[in-house]
Amino acid sequence: MVGVRDNDIDELPKNAANYTALTPLWFMERAAQVHPNRKSVIHGSRHYTWHQTYQRCRRFASALSNCSIGLGNTVAVIAPNIPALYEAHFGIPMAGAVLNPVNIRLNASTIAFLLGHCAAAAVIVDQEFFSLAEEALKIWSEKDKTFRHPLLVVIGDENCDPKSLRYALDKGAIEYEDFLQSGDPEYAWKPPKDEWQSIALGYTSVLASSSTAFITVDSSR
């Protein structure tokens, strides 16, 4: 009988039969499969089922991918607790990118520092905070010679003055729902190859010069 060394298991390489990277993205897929018609989101007059939410997240990921945003990129979201922010927690990592949820109570100077530090490839901003984002982008562009204007998407808010949405669109922003419609609801997202892959980036809300960044990986969500 051939003996088995104690370290044989340790030397066994990862493969599809013995390893799957942990990721919270599976929870969304499973919810859509098991409870497709149950309510997932209720926000004022807006109601979504798990099937609809999963499709919206896949559209989000697809739309980002169509803009060449994915692995190695960071997407900043400046928005309160609304459906789009929830969708960002799944749609952005489904594209392989890293989510950076920005505290809406920060000033433009601090937000400019955060956007520059993470080199945001896209900024998704609620209509209410578009002027704040615009000022932050201006500060970033003036301080960074390597500045490249990120993709700018504005989330329409029916409770806000429609003039502010028109202003954002006139400035070159894409309306969020239109952005989603450009994506594929059946987008074949891929789980991370390594559960240590970054999924989210956060910052402590202090002075920009001393703000601390922290990374969340797939297995820790």
UniProtKB/TrEMBL annotation:
Upper classification of the organism: Eukaryota, Viridiplantae, Streptophyta, Embryophyta, Tracheophyta
Native source organism of the sequence: Canavalia gladiata
Localization of this protein: Cytoplasm, Cytosol
Residues in AMP-dependent synthetase/ligase domain copies: 29-205
GO molecular function: ATP binding; ligase activity
Family the UniProt entry places it in: Belongs to the ATP-dependent AMP-binding enzyme family.
Any single GO CC term annotated in Swiss-Prot or TrEMBL for this entry: cytosol
Keywords noted in UniProt: ATP-binding, Ligase, Nucleotide-binding
SUPFAM superfamilies per the UniProt record, alphabetical: Acetyl-CoA synthetase-like
Lineage: superkingdom: Eukaryota
Keyword Transferase: no
Protein name: AMP-dependent synthetase/ligase domain-containing protein
